[in-house]
Amino acid sequence: MNKFLDEKSNYDLKVDLINPTSEIENLSKAFFSLMKQTKLQLEEIKSQSSEMKKNNKELKKVNEELDKFIYSTAHDLRSPLTSILGLINLADRDQDEDQRKNYLSLMKASVYKMEAFIKEIVDYSKNKKLEVDLVEIDLKELIYDVFEDHRFIPACEKIELSVSSEGREVIFSDVTRLRIILTNLISNAIRYSDPAKDHPFIKVLIQNKKNQFIIQFSDNGLGIEKSHLNSIFDMFYRANEASAGSGLGLFILKETIETLKGHVEVTSQLGVGTSYIISMPNKKSNYNIKAQKLVFSD
Asked: Any residues with CB less than 8 A from the CB of 212 and at least 6 apart, and which?
């Protein structure tokens, strides 16, 4: 009987010796598992915090742009309206027919200025709100089409447009945004063409590569001073106080190019001309959108 009790005591002692080791091992595993989960949670919190900081920064930028946009828009819309009202008052008082015709001409110019500015606001809104919609585009045809839209501008009559291409002229992109980009390039080239030059021109070279296309756009207009080049894409920036533009065009140009995941570079020399190099993706799978054929109508 005593022998049996001794053997049982030895067995219990062994179990007691084994169980603490097993418990420590289980606790150790649980601790490391908890540490791993804690680490993952901390990384997730850090990621969310970083995302929140990024979103706050972007929100602050948007709010600043909105404040500036509202203030400058109100100013730029009020200016031509004030001019028109002043000219109407002068026309009412003046009995000279030739002078009245002059007033009407000036009023018309103010209306065109307001119309151009409103169009820029609409373009800005389109770029911000519309989804990217890829279609197959004949870029050369689109350039000539946009140029024709500017034929009514007197300075356009003297400008010679030439478009050449390397590779296929058909590209995949968003036609609405491409039209906005080309409209700003062409209208700027016309507006700031040099009347002193005998042969004003706009030259465009399209380079169509495997996954991207490049537009090299150059003119021999008035050019831009080097000191202004770093700021010309800022909202409402005017390189020249006497400029007839709103200062929105090149800002919209850059914003639209960036929406299409593209990039723009500009070089210019005062009295010589200005050149833009625009590169953008040309691969429909980048957007995961089914491309469709776009046909231009006469």
From this structure: 279, 280, 281, 282, 283
Arithmetic mean of pLDDT, 72-90? 70
Residue of higher predicted confidence among 17 and 80: 80
Tokens of 135: 């279609």
At 41, the pLDDT band (50, 70, 90 cuts) reads confident
- Whose structure tokens read 């002059």? 102
Q: Is the pLDDT of residue 162 over 90?
A: yes
CA distance 106 to 159: 24
Catalogue the long-range contacts made by 264-272 (C-beta closer than 8 Å, 24 or more residues apart): 264/233, 266/224, 266/229, 266/232, 267/229, 268/223, 268/224, 268/226, 268/229, 269/223, 269/226, 270/222, 270/223, 270/224, 270/225, 270/226, 271/194, 271/222, 271/223, 272/220, 272/223
- Which of 125, 122, 121, 117 shows the shortest CA–CA distance to 79? 117
Rounded Cα distance, 101 and 95, in Å: 11
Whether the per-residue pLDDT at 288 is higher than 50: the answer is no
| Pairwise CA distance, residues 176 & 160, whole Å | 25
Q: Write the single-letter amino acid at 168.
A: R
Which tokens is 226 given?
């080097």
What pLDDT, on the 0 to 100 scale, is given for residue 88? Answer: 82
